[in-house]
Amino acid sequence: MEKVIELAIKHGHTIFVKSVDGSTLTGIPEPSNDPATLKMRTPLGHFWIPIDEVCHVSRLIVFKSNA
After folding, report:
1. Is the dihedral of CA 20, 24, 29, 32 positive or negative?
2. Domain 2-60 grouped into CATH 2.30.30.100
3. Listed residue (59, 49, 42, 62) closest to 23, CA to CA
4. Which domain of life is it from (predicted)?
5. CB of 17 within 8 A of CB of 25?
6. Sign of dihedral through CA atoms 50, 38, 33, 45?
7. Does pLDDT of 32 surpass 70?
């Protein structure tokens, strides 16, 4: 899971996060000074989520067409 987050930060990808309580959040992860916390930028603002509360992470990759 941490590797997916690291790759998303490196490439500027959006991620989908599901927490253990069932709530979801979609946004762009950012580097955090606390390795136990996931920092995300969303249209609603910045969120900090403890990594131990995250149960699923998916990277959302947009492919741009040349058309």
Report:
1. negative
2. yes
3. 49
4. Bacteria
5. yes
6. negative
7. yes
